[in-house]
UniProtKB/TrEMBL annotation:
<dbReference type="Pfam" id="PF00004">
    <property type="entry name" value="AAA"/>
</dbReference>
<dbReference type="InterPro" id="IPR050311">
    <property type="entry name" value="ORC1/CDC6"/>
</dbReference>
<dbReference type="InterPro" id="IPR054425">
    <property type="entry name" value="Cdc6_ORC1-like_ATPase_lid"/>
</dbReference>
<dbReference type="Pfam" id="PF22606">
    <property type="entry name" value="Cdc6-ORC-like_ATPase_lid"/>
</dbReference>
<keyword id="KW-0238">DNA-binding</keyword>
<keyword id="KW-0479">Metal-binding</keyword>
<dbReference type="GO" id="GO:0005664">
    <property type="term" value="C:nuclear origin of replication recognition complex"/>
</dbReference>
<feature type="domain" description="AAA+ ATPase">
    <location>
        <begin position="35"/>
        <end position="197"/>
    </location>
</feature>
<dbReference type="GO" id="GO:0033314">
    <property type="term" value="P:mitotic DNA replication checkpoint signaling"/>
</dbReference>
<dbReference type="GO" id="GO:0016887">
    <property type="term" value="F:ATP hydrolysis activity"/>
</dbReference>
<comment type="function">
    <text>Component of the origin recognition complex (ORC) that binds origins of replication. DNA-binding is ATP-dependent, however specific DNA sequences that define origins of replication have not been identified so far. ORC is required to assemble the pre-replication complex necessary to initiate DNA replication.</text>
</comment>
<keyword id="KW-0067">ATP-binding</keyword>
<keyword id="KW-0547">Nucleotide-binding</keyword>
<comment type="similarity">
    <text>Belongs to the ORC1 family.</text>
</comment>
<dbReference type="InterPro" id="IPR003959">
    <property type="entry name" value="ATPase_AAA_core"/>
</dbReference>
<dbReference type="InterPro" id="IPR003593">
    <property type="entry name" value="AAA+_ATPase"/>
</dbReference>
<dbReference type="GO" id="GO:0005524">
    <property type="term" value="F:ATP binding"/>
</dbReference>
Length: 406
């Protein structure tokens, strides 16, 4: 179950050899030339984009340690985890100026100041980077950094191309056309961006991904071991997933849950078991409950999820959820949804109904009740991945993008 978990980090990534090599060659070349550049990686969720870039960076770090390539500083910026898009500037400036945030904490300067520093730095054509090293940046979930002015995304595409920038940006997004949306054709051709699209996985590929994880596990254990799940069962799961999304996370999830279900019986999971699990995942009481929620109830859950991902914690201040709710209102309201800003009092009603059904829990007790409402923390009481999936299904593409699900 552990090795099938999406959080497990396998040594090798089957079916992504070609993509791995292309990213590797591109970055290696830029490091060797001592120049900068942008590699744009697109693909729907769960196609191994982040995993591939991580594998490349791990290998490059190893190479740099052995003097097989030039040393570089590495920084990871994740669009989902930033309080707002312009916060990316601060993180990049820390990396470029050689500030060690892990040791000394974040720099206390505004996004505006960071932007000014970066513009001066890259515009000056001189490198004051840490030891003149190149800086490799993974800009993950770039879609989340799109603003109406598109300036953040534009800058991250543009800076690597300035003379002597020594900035290598690995931009990862779900959509293929971000460059088209933020830049004119003329600018695009000047940038000479390298573009790699990750196709959704096919049935045999998804089978391979699950089987190779299990086989790697088996090799490490001695003795004649019974399979935890039959080859047919894996194939069935792979088929189901590839017909909808080609998302490796989904197939790993289904197989893990199937193994979990069958494990007490100490037998190999079969196709029927996989079928049962898929049915349960589709028709769970939670899914049915979520589908019946009102627009603002769903929006509030989406806002809570966004805050959880951004802050990396589970308990979120009610005021932060409210703020995100208003931000999402403009983005996620579809045909027939009311886009009128609800009052804080109305939002409290929405929260109350979610509290009543225990989809959300709120900090309680004597101390909490003395706090102002906005300071009290709320907590999602449902399984996060399931809420994301169902909200995405109900809300359509804009919701899927916002929640980062396929
Ligand atoms: N080729 C592969 N072999 C083994 N595991 C894989 C492979 N591709 C993806 N995975 C696993 O699937 C999960 C999702 O992969 P990853 O996070 O790289 O997707 P992604 O394309 O970055 O998705 P998103 O757009 O949602 O960020 C991870 O647990 C990863 O280890
Ligand atoms: Mg990713």
């Amino acid at each position: 179950m552990h090795i099938l978990h999406v959080a497990a980090r396998p040594e090798a990534l089957p079916c992504r050899d070609e993509e791995y090599q292309r990213v590797m060659r591109a970055v290696e070349e830029l490091l060797e030339e001592g120049s900068g550049g942008c590699v744009y990686i697109s693909g729907v969720p769960g196609t191994g984009k982040t995993a591939t870039v991580h594998a490349v960076v791990r290998e490059l770090k190893r190479m740099a340690e052995q003097n097989e390539t030039n040393p570089f500083t590495y920084v990871e910026i994740n669009g989902l985890r930033l309080p707002e898009p312009s916060a990316a500037y601060g993180l990049l400036w820390e990396a470029v100026s050689g500030h060690d945030a892990a040791e000394e904490g974040h720099l206390k300067i505004s996004a505006k100041e960071s932007l000014k520093n970066l513009t001066r730095h890259f515009g000056g054509g001189k490198r004051m980077g840490p030891g003149g090293h190149a800086c490799v940046v993974l800009m993950d979930e770039l879609d989340q950094l799109m603003t109406s002015k598109q300036d953040v995304v534009y800058n991250f595409f543009n800076w690597p191309t300035l003379v002597n920038s020594k900035l290598v940006v690995l931009a990862v997004a779900n959509t293929m056309d971000l460059p088209e949306r933020v830049m004119s054709r003329r600018v695009r051709s000047r940038l000479g961006m390298i573009r790699i699209n990750f196709q959704p996985y096919t049935t045999p590929q998804l089978e391979m991904i699950v089987r190779s994880r299990l086989e790697a596990m088996k090799e490490g254990l001695k003795g004649d071991l019974q399979d935890v799940i039959s080859p047919d069962g894996i194939k069935f799961a792979a088929m189901k997933v590839s017909s909808i999304s080609g998302d490796a996370r989904r197939v790993l999830d289904i197989c893990r849950r199937t193994v979990e279900l069958v494990q007490p019986m100490k037998r190999t999971a079969r196709t029927e078991d996989v079928r049962d699990v898929i049915k349960v995942m589709q028709n769970s009481p939670t899914a049915a409950y979520l589908r019946d929620l009102s627009f603002h109830e769903r929006l509030l859950l989406a806002a809570l999820l966004k805050c959880m991902k951004r802050e990396g914690i589970e308990e979120i201040k009610w005021a932060d959820v409210q703020h995100q709710h208003y931000l999402y209102l403009g983005v996620l309201a579809g045909n027939g949804d009311s886009t009128r800003n609800p009052t804080i009092g109305e939002l409290a009603y929405v929260l109350d109904s979610l509290l009543a059904s225990r989809a959300i829990l709120m900090e309680d007790g004597a101390i909490a009740s003395r706090k102002p409402d906005g300071e009290r923390r709320v907590l999602l009481n449902l399984e996060q991945s399931e809420v994301e999936r169902v909200l995405g299904e109900v809300g359509g593409q804009a919701w899927k993008n916002a929640l980062s699900v396929s």
